[in-house]
Amino acid sequence: MSRPFDLVAIGGGSAGFNAARVAAALGKRVAVIDGSRQLGGLCILRGCMPSKTLLYSADVLHLARTGRDLGLRIAGAAADMPAVHDRKRRIIAGFARHRVSQLKSGKFALIRGQARFVDPHTVELGDGRRIVGSHLLISTGSKVSVPPVPGLSAARFWTSDDVLDIDFKPRSVVVLGGGIVACELAQFLNRIGTRVCLVQRSPNLLREYSEEAARVVRRAFEDEGMEVHTGTRIVGVRSGPRGASVTFREGERTLVRRADHILNALGREPNTSPLLLANAGVRVGPNGRILVNRWQQTSAPHIYAAGDCCGPHEIVHVAIQQAELAARHSAGIRNLRPVDDATLLGVVFTDPQVASIGWRERDVAAKRIKYVAASYPFNDHGKSILMNANYGYAKVVAAARSGRILGAEIVGRDAGELIHCFSTPLAMGATVHDMLRAPWYHPTLSEIVTYPLEEIAGKLG
C-alpha cells in the first residue's frame, strides 16, 4: 500500500463498486475502502431492494383484500409479519452475498476501515494505515437527517432502517414527511394493517413531481383509509413509555396526533462528516452536498464524487453513471459525455406508481421552450379498467415544431415499467411520429401511451 493507487474509491456501494470495476477494466490499480459494519451498500442493505421486497408483499395483500371488486372471495388475507420479514431477509442476504463476492473478486484491493483525509492525496484509517491515491472518488452515500423540528432530536423515532426490519405489525404510526421514502413506507404500513397518519410540511406530497401526480397519490392513500395532512408546520414532537405525539398547524387549526411510533422520513443528508473534507480541499454546498462539475470533479480536480453525497438526485442508476464517468475521466479517456438530466428517469413505488423521464411540463415551461403536452386517464383505458387500476394518467411532452419527445410522466399501475417505453426514444431524439410507427398490442397497459402521442401528433399536423 506504500505505492499510490491510480484510483481509491471511498465507499463500496453501487457508485464505489462500479467506479472500481470500470477503472480496473481499464488496467488501473484500484482500491475500495469501506468502513461500514456490513458490505453491500445502501441500495441492497437498507434501501431499494428491501423496501421493494416489502412493498410487493403489501401489494399482493392489498389485491387479495380487494378481490371482491373482481368478483373474488379471498377470506382471511393477512400479513404474517415474521414470514414477510424472513423472506425479505433471505432475499437481501442473497443480493449482499453477490455484491461481497464482487468486491472480493481480486480485480481491485478491498480495504476495510473508516477513512478520513490527511491531505489531498492521502486517507488514514482508524488503525493508522494510510492509503495514497493519484485520484480518489468519494462515494459514501447518505444518512437519515434529523431536521430542527421541536422535540424531534430528543424523541424516540423510527427511521426507514427500522421499518424495513420490523417483524411485527405496529398498531399505529405517525409518518413525518411526504417524499418518496415517506410515501412508500406509509402505504406499506397502512396495507399491513397499521393505522397511519402522514404529516407533510410542503403543500403537496412528492414535491419533486407534479401537483397532478401528488393529487392522484393522495386520493389513493385516503381511499385506502390513510390520514394525510399537507402544508403543515410541526409545532412539537414528544415520545414516552406509552407512545408518541405530534403537534402541528394545518391552516388555522392546531392538531395533535398520537401513535405508538413516529417515523422520521423528513429526508437524508450526505454521509461525509467523518471524511474531514477540508483536509483535502473539497468544498460542499449549503445543503452539505459535495460540489462537483459535469465530470464529477470536486474543487480538488483529482478528487471525484458520485451518488448521494453529491446529488443532485438520490437514484442508484444515476450514481452508477456518475461513478463510471468519474472512473473514465480520471483515466484520461477522451470524448466522454456528462450525465444528462434531459434523460433523467425516476420512479416512486407507491400504488399507483409515479414515474417520469426527461423534462416535466414545468421544466419545459421554465426553460421557455415551446411545447405541446397531452395526457390520457387510466380510468378510460380498456386494460386498466378490467384490472381495476383506475388511478392515474399517462402524459407526454413534446417540442412544438418537431414533435421530438422531451419527457413523459405516468401515474398508475406498473408506471415504473411503462415509463421505459420512452427510454430509448428519448435517448435517440425520437418524435411522437416515430413512436407511433411502432406496433402497440391490444389490450395492454402500455398502449395507453399511444393516446397522448396521437393527440400531440394531431395538434402538430
Structure characterization notes:
With 461 residues, the protein is of the alpha/beta class. It has three domains: 5-143 and 269-330, FAD/NAD(P)-binding domain (3-Layer(bba) Sandwich), CATH 3.50.50.60; 160-266, FAD/NAD(P)-binding domain (3-Layer(bba) Sandwich), CATH 3.50.50.60; 341-460, FAD/NAD-linked reductase, C-terminal dimerisation domain (Enolase-like, domain 1, 2-Layer Sandwich), CATH 3.30.390. It contains 14 helices and 21 strands. The strands form five sheets. Strands 1, 2, 3, 4, 5, 6 and 16 form a seven-stranded mixed sheet that branches. The chain has a five-stranded antiparallel sheet with strand order 17-18-21-20-19, sandwiched between helices. Helix 3 (48-65) packs across helix 6. The longest helix is centred in the N-terminal third of the chain and has 23 residues, at 81-103. The radius of gyration is 24 Å and the shape is globular. The N and C termini lie far apart (66 Å). The mean pLDDT is 96.
Helix/strand structural class: alpha/beta
CATH superfamily of the largest domain: FAD/NAD(P)-binding domain
* SS field, number of helical segments: 14
Query: Mind telling me the CATH class of the largest domain?
Result: Alpha Beta
Total DSSP E strands: 21
Q: Under the CATH scheme, which architecture of the largest domain would be assigned?
A: 3-Layer(bba) Sandwich
Gap from first CA to last CA: 66 Å
Arithmetic mean pLDDT? 96
Uncertain residue segments: none
Beta content? 15-25%
- CATH-derived topology of the largest domain: FAD/NAD(P)-binding domain
**Largest sheet data:** 7 strands, mixed
What gyration radius follows from the Cα positions, in whole Å? 24 Å
Oligomer: single chain
As a percent range, the share of helical residues equals 25-40%
- The best one-word shape is globular
